[in-house]
């Protein structure tokens, strides 16, 4: 194959030598031939002298450079960096792999032959390679070492030409006998003539670069992986480092090809090879990065899916060596492979990866122009993001900067990293808040909320909400978080998320509300918040009661889309308990829970909090009894409870301290029942019990209580509101009283239009009882309307650049990179 680069388009055409000298073009280009034609093939342009080439010494040197016929060096031997794709990449079996960027060195001087030795080569064909190979095979087995070495040199030259052939589909010139002869040379001279062993290994490497040649290697060398694994451990102590390199490259080719069964390679032998090549990483400052990439790629293959090998690599101090490579290297393929190895180890031993310095080394690559490298780095960081460390500032800053990327995968990884790093970590929470991170997080959440729906977008929203939920408490800046969340845009957005009935998002929104409502002053922001839709206005109390009823009808299931049903029951109970501290919301909650539609649970009629008091889950019992302790202040609820002897017995039993977590609520409720309710007195709210989560209930043992289905009375005091306020549903002025029992529930969210309790959540992961077919309320804005805003109405300051900057792509993925995990 011709090594020469075609003429550069910028060079003067049909120019004189003087024109060429004046052009000042660097080496590597050249003048176009006088007879240049666009369709003429490159081969042969510079095969002989041309009158158009300069006659000066400098010109002759350039022409000689173009006319060289030796094998070029891309850096494996000399350590120099090649600036263009090597010739091997044109014909290599792994043209996209790291190995394709590595070529051999210029041919060394062949040994001098005496007359007797020359006689053996007289009849060797100089033009027919196939014929020459047949004649060289017996000479490679000659007892004369010089003759064998000369024959091996010639076979190496033929194999190199064969590997460089432009026609990949033609049959290779080498055959199985050649491979077997080379194998015999290695076996015979392994502990003697290292030079001929190196020539044989180099030849086998060239043969293996084509698929057919690789098959010949497999046929001629049974258990080839074992053969070269033994040779690597042997050649490590050799003075000829090129022998080790050729052996390693051939082994890399073999284990990278799926046609080879490397499972037969024993664990002890794998560990020996891993120990050898890991030790070679100590020489990383003297190794060409492309050759180093082959070493790291080989390590990745040995570590893939093998936990004992990963532990052995860690014990060999391999993590620190990888960190050194990641911090110093600029070669993208090498960096990406090293990061993927880190990720695979971090999935089992994240703390060791962090101790090795991952948080210090990885952040700088988040600004790299290679998007696959950025994604691989983010995946690695996500695997270690739940480990507490001191030096996390750079990770947090760069993650926040990438949160506005328009690459959904990058955005998802960033959201996952942030939610992990702020969970139970006061230091990271404060670091984010000091950088005004809430602005960037809320902007990303609003942007994702009106993006095209998909599982990936939903997961981004869930992770962002989880981050907000973690930022709501546990640090000295939590008040600033609450101030951002009570803005009308965010209040309406949370109601919009509740109306979508997606289990994972429901859980996060309800957790956020629980933490917000711990502060009684925040309750007032939820009184009038509503969404407008085709079925009327939707309020918080209305939707949360619907969520509670729907979850109760799924109580026989352990999970809904990986969310525990017990959480979807206990969280609405807790939120309603907090909201009931407002007297007006107390009346709305009472009316909503007494509505006939919300009393249909598992084919029975029951008052939901009372029904759940007899759950087998202590957490559900605690939240249900806590809500009842507030609802008992309402006269109608108080009368209903007083008329239920089973519940009164339940209260007396737990008030005595049978279950300590229930005793306080039971005593409060008993006291209210004895007093006949408490709506007449001042009602300023009561603290809530701490919330914990465990496994969902498997059954509910309490029989439902039957009581008259009467419309709830108007709220206490008939409060009047300013005209610009929209009153909550259920019975403030008479025109807002609840409809009679036979009303059509089509006025509200379309989830109410049919009983979906018998639907299977396994039919479709995105269409079940928690997910309406259409989003009737659309995206909320500050006025509660359903049209998505073009620009987020509530912008907060952020230290992470302008929206234009935060939405830039990180570069085009490289076509020759692979970031599949090991």
TrEMBL record:
Record field: compositional bias (Polar residues): 48-57
Biased composition (Pro residues): 727-742
GO MF annotation terms: cadherin binding
Listed InterPro entries: ARM-like, ARM-type_fold, Armadillo, Beta-catenin
Top-level taxon in the UniProt lineage: Eukaryota
Keywords: Developmental protein
Region described as Disordered: 1-57, 685-750, 793-822
Single GO BP term: cell adhesion
Name of the molecule in the record: Armadillo segment polarity protein
Native organism: Steinernema glaseri
